[in-house]
Amino acid sequence: MKLLSFPDTPFQIQLSFDSVIDNLESAVNEKANRQAGHEEALLKEINQHPELRTGITDIAQIESNAGLIRRLLAEYFPEPLTLNEIKGVSFPYLNVVFNRTQRFNNILKAAGDNFEFNIRDLDQHQFYVLNCCLILNEFYNTKLDFRKPLFYDIPASDGTIRHYRILYNADFLDILPTERSVKLTSADIDQLINNYDNLDLWMEKFPPKSWLIKGFALMSLIDVTIENAVSVLKERLLRFDAASFEQSIDPVFQSIFDTPHIKIGFTLFNSEDNTLSIAAFGKPLRSFIMEGTEPRNINDVLCPGSYQALIVERRYFAVSDTSDFHIENPDSSLACHVAPSAIRSFILAPVVKDDEVIGLLEVVSKKSKELNSINANKLDVVMPYITDNIKRLIVEFQNQIQAFIQEKFTTIHSSVYWKFKEEAQRYIYSRRRGEEKSLGAIVFNEVFPLYGEIDIKGSSAARNLSVQKDLQTQVLSLLSLLQKIPVPTPSDGFEKGKRQLERFLQDLLLPVKASTEQYITDYILNNIHPWLSECQEPGLASAIKEYFIENDKASGVFHAHRRKYEQSITMVNEKLAGIIDNRQEEAQQAFPHYYERFKTDGIEHNLYIGPSIAPGQAFTEKHLRDLRLWQLKVLCEMETAHHYYKPSLPYPLDVTTLVLVYDTPISVRFRMDEKRLDVDGSYNARFEIVKKRIDKACVLNTDERITQPGKITIVYSNLHEEKEYSEYVHLLQEQNILDRNIEKLDVEDLQGVVGLKALRVKINHDNTSLTMM
What superfamily does domain 226-399 belong to in CATH? Predict the structure, then answer.
């Protein structure tokens, strides 16, 4: 006799009806009524088949005695219940079930000839140990609770899977030792209890086929398809994501509604702007009521009846036949949308959380009448789980957005995130305790500031030149076009306009002023373009159309030089920012420090390092010196990268490089209104003043800027700073990053700032250690 798919068991199995036959004999001896004759005849027939008492060892014996067994067990299988109960005779975990009720047979017939009994999630290890536990409880008085729900998953004729819980009545089973049984000690039992995973140990104490299990079990199945579907749904929703929506959810609802035609969709509802939209939790969820991917007003999607039910009354809205629904509601956008589709019946369910509709669950079928207002109530058992998990996905998505905003749009750097988290926890905990406390100040004391910039040289002049060239092209084109337009009557304004354009052309031969671009553009827009728009000359229509095409800022020739300039600025900034951002990841490993970087006409950066930034680590002067040397080296790398990158720019642009040395520690505070760190207090303001005024400074008593292309300029205040940075310069000279010649400069007096000095050194662009960094 074959045991499931598990070859090993501690039991020898004897299928026997000895206990039932004994009961039958007792009944015959005690009864003196008219039924005794029937029982005597049955007992006489049974005695002709001793294997029913001593033990059946072959399936053929079951088949040959099927009628007799059915009569013997008739008391346990009432005929009036044969179409109601799912019941049969078996051994626990045996894949042979016989004497089945008619309903059981109908289920197996629908399952097909290839169906085999397999208990869900039961493997050889579990099977063996559970059998051993039966013996321990029976013979050694242990109270091991090894019980777990057992299930059969049986396909129905329509392809859906029905789920049945297995219940065993073991009253007719006896467990007996054999000569091969191993006698266990208390120590043996303790060892087994503490070593569930050691199958070899269990097989040592309970050798295969060393015990006898005799008798039979009554097996009943209970259809728990809906309960199982809810359980599976809860399990899948725990690890649910948008990518697995269809594969995870559809089969569950197919089981609940007992049809393979069910599909599930979902649509988000935004009560703030009254719109429906596709839910994009990583991957867009499927929706059957939305057209396209753009949000739509809910009244453009739902009909008045469905809106009233779903949004106002917050109840299910069911349509059992979409064709009838369309006929009855010919003007309904919902009816017009679903009628041409494959959907023939559907249910919409509001997903409500915290008294707010957050979305619509869509249950659709390709068969009419399959979904309706009656079976819509089956959703009651699953909607709480759907609601909780949709809300979870929304919250997770919002958290991702918040994290993205924090990463991309704020200046809360990772090095100081701990401080913000600490203050947030303190504030939230105090509010939960009912304490009214304001947010505390986020201040970092005694930090050393480092400032550096790579500025695009002459960016204003370069932009003015691009404006000049574009306006020259546009004005010349306009003058040529106006020459072809017949002079209108009166002609004074027209001729005045042409003369003004000619004056503009003369003005554009000289360097343009800051206001020139706006003035000329406004004049052309308000005085010249109306004439072109009103011109009715058929021969000029094409030329006028071409003119307006060329005036397009995104692609027209009249903005070509300005686009090249803007593109060049963007390319320079992206290139330089990428270098310092990447190098920052490495520098943070040496010692955490605050870093912020700004894109202007070039790249500026601030660094703050000190014990208050990373209080959990010991800060030394070496950390500061290492970061200062790192800053110089990275700026040289950035300038060198630009040197090689410049020929590929649409508009060739030079850059200058500057470092500001500030050896006095300062305090920085997070400005809540500006959402950024800034120096704290007036006594620290000098650092910011110098930063803002130094980049355009000149060498004392000259017109020469302290910054020059191809060189790095280090601005400082005292001899101590000069000595320290001279050491860094010498190190970089030894690495052939900087030229041997060092210029020592006095910086002109600036407003509120006097006595600054500078070191200026040429950068060796041919240094491979920089180009390979």
Answer: GAF domain (3.30.450.40)
pLDDT, averaged in runs of 10, over the chain (773 residues): 64 88 81 63 87 82 88 91 92 77 92 84 87 91 82 84 87 91 93 91 94 91 80 63 63 83 89 82 78 85 92 93 92 89 93 89 92 88 81 74 59 75 68 66 88 90 90 92 75 79 88 84 90 82 90 92 92 93 89 89 92 90 95 96 92 93 88 70 74 88 94 95 96 94 94 90 79 46
Going by the DSSP 8-state scheme, the letter that residue 311 receives in this structure is: I
Please tell me the distance from the alpha carbon of residue 567 to that of residue 651, in angstroms, as a whole number: 8
Between strands 443-456 and 356-365, the pairing is: unpaired
Identity of residue 362: E
Please identify which residue in the block is written with the tokens 């007096």.
749
- How many CA atoms are closer than 13 Å to the CA of 578, on its beta-carbon side? 9
Strand runs labelled E in 487-570: none
Contacts of 170 (CB under 8 A, 6+ apart): 92, 217
What residues form DSSP beta bridges with 161? 155
Q: Pick from 318, 311, 373, 375: which is nearest to 343 by CA?
A: 318
Task: Quote the pTM value.
Answer: 0.53
Specify the DSSP element, H or E, that contains 386.
helix 383-409
**Close Cβ partners of 494 (under 8 Å, ≥ 6 residues apart):** 482, 487, 488, 531
Q: What is the dihedral angle through the alpha carbons of 22, 23, 28, 32, rounded to the nearest 10 degrees? A: 150
CA distance 427 to 430: 5
**Residue spans per domain, the chain:** 11-220, 226-399, 459-555, 565-771
Tokens of 155: 């396909």
Provide the residue type at 89 as one letter.
V
Nearest one of 641, 761, 750, 746 to 692, comparing CA atoms:
750
